[in-house]
Amino acid sequence: MNRQSLSAVGLFAIVALLLGSRSARADVMLPSILSSEMVLQQGMDVPVWGWADAGEKVTVSFAGQTKSTEAGDDGKWLVKLDKLTANAKGATLTIKGNNTIKLTDVLVGEVWICSGQSNMEWSVTRSANPKEETAAANHPKIRLFNVPGHETSPTELEKLKRISSWTTCSPKSVAGFSAVGYYFGRALQKKLDVPIGLVGSNWGGTKIEPWTTLDGFNSVPELKQLAERSKKQAETNAKVGGGSPSAICNAMVLPLAPYAMRGAIWYQGESNGGEGMSYYHKKKGLVNGWRKLFNEDLGFYWVQLANFRAANDKPEGGDGWARIREAQRHAAKDIPHAGMAVIIDIGEARDIHPKNKQDVGKRLANYALHQTYKLKDVVPAGPLYTGHKVEGNKIRLSFDYVGGGLMVGKKQGLKPTEQDKEGKLARFAIAGEDKVWHWANAEIDGDTVIVSSDQVAKPVAVRYAYSMNPAGANLYNKEGMPASPFRTDEW
User: Fold this and answer.
1) How do the domains of the chain map onto residue ranges?
2) What is the pTM of this model?
């Protein structure tokens, strides 16, 4: 073969290579969160997005709808399906561009993200009754998506660093999934009777800061320094770790957006356990940031930290996690469409990872059912302190979520809470103007509690269960849910 022929062959090969590369680039690509077996959110516009060649036409078809768009100069494209109706019968979602992608067995229902540190990451197989719970986890209407690994990034990522996909809930798929998330979703599915999609994104031992977006930090003036750190990391592409502001969110939450979701559940705080109201501000930043990502009315429900370590028998309390629980309570009161599951009765003094995740999931679901889904027959929580009044040498306490009435309760393991008819309320403390605390007598009077002590003639303040491990705290409503720790003072 002469040189001219070789040149022609070479030129042909180069052209073919270029055409092949162009063809490869032209294929439509999707984020991992869009896959077969997924659940799409009912009742709101549903974004479907991905990447293609600039200017490439992309058509999305599902449930009788067809939406088309063109990829932008950066190759990104997005369409929004109109509001969908819940459907437990699997259907096919088709995306067509240069290539055609068919996502099969797609359901429509309710989608929630389940996030936090190790107590949210804690799997079904490591929690109470693992064999029985795993074996019974055949729920074709529940679908699971687990963000794989533990990843960080100084900048906002569009794609997960590791590939994942949706799976149908089964004994095999549920084994390594968040136990709290699964029990939450199972309770929703049973009550609502629609498909449930659960997205797990968790990392044990992490603080709240790396889970918060830059926008979230910017939305709260008290978080200005964290916002500046997050912004600087992105601008300089700095090396980040699991404790860096926004770093986990950038890699493990942002790539999921703008997937349509109804709400979020959150179990985290142990790693911020020494904080007080600073955590309140950080909670606001977290919620604000995630609502901007997914849904401006994203329901947001979290777990107040459990009882842990040896009991403190000093009436003033204030040790360990007492202050962060207070911050969690105030955040639940002040943030719209938010709430808190109280679990000071199901923790374990010697284990920071209590095994009873069933009750945690159920209590979170109660809040969602009542507040997000407007089921008024569901009492969302145990008694929450709302106010007090001094009456002579006594203080009368008022509560929200009294439900069927207040009671002295006793909770053992996974069994329902029982009324202790012979028991007396415990863990109430009272103080006068001298700010000296004394253990108090407390009695239920209708929907209120009256607190007093022979040692305090003119009381001004009350504390309840305000310690790291308030062992013996036993104020419940008759629905079997415990009262949150609280204090009426700001000393």
Assistant:
1) 112-372, 384-487
2) 0.94
Residue type, 187: A
183 half-sphere exposure, CB direction, 13 A CA radius? 25
Q: Give the residue from 104, 99, 116, 247 showing the smallest Cα distance to 184.
A: 116
Q: How many CB atoms lie within 10 A of CB 221?
A: 8
SS (HEC) of the chain: CCHHHHHHHHHHHHHHHHHHHHHHHHCCECCCCCCCCCEEECCCCEEEEEECCCCCEEEEEECCEEEEEECCCCCEEEEEECCCCCEEEEEEEEEECCCEEEEEEEEEEEEEEEEECHHHHCEHHHCCCHHHHHHCCCEEEEEEEECCCCCCCCCCCCCCCCCCCCEEECHHHHCCCEHHHHHHHHHHHHHHCCCEEEEEEECCCCCCHHHCCHHHHHCCHHHHHHHHHHHHHHHHCCCCCCCCCCHHHHHHCHHHCCCCCCEEEEECCHHHCCCCHHHHHHHHHHHHHHHHHHCCCCEEEEECCCCCCCCCCCCCCCCCCHHHHHHHHHHHHHCCCEEEECCCCCCECCECCCCCCHHHHHHHHHHHHHHHCCCCCCCCCCCEEEEEEEECCEEEEEEECCCCCEEEEECCCCCCCEECCCCCCCCEEEEECCCCEEECEEEEECCEEEEECCCCCCEEEEEECCCCCCCCCCEEECCCCECCCEECCCC
Instruction: Let me know: does 463 contact 475? Beta carbons within 8 Å.
Output: no
Q: How far apart are CA 261 and CA 278, in angstroms?
A: 28
Digitized pLDDT (tens) for each residue of the chain, 491 residues in all: 554 444 444 444 444 444 444 444 579 999 999 999 999 999 999 999 999 999 999 999 999 999 999 999 999 999 999 999 999 999 999 999 999 999 999 999 999 999 999 999 999 999 999 999 999 999 999 999 999 999 999 999 999 999 999 999 999 999 999 999 999 999 999 999 999 999 999 999 999 999 999 999 999 999 999 999 999 999 999 999 999 999 999 999 999 999 999 999 999 999 999 999 999 999 999 999 999 999 999 999 999 999 999 999 999 999 999 999 999 999 999 999 999 999 999 999 999 999 999 999 999 999 999 999 999 999 999 999 999 999 999 999 999 999 999 999 999 999 999 999 999 999 999 999 999 999 999 999 999 999 999 999 999 999 999 999 999 999 999 999 999 999 999 99
Token pair of 20 as six digits: 């092949």
Cβ atoms within 10 Å of 83's Cβ, excluding its own: 13
Give the orientation angle of helix 358-367 with respect to helix 179-192, to 10 degrees: 50
Please state which CATH class domain 112-372 belongs to: alpha beta
Nearest C-alpha neighbor of 459 from the set 433, 436, 489: 433
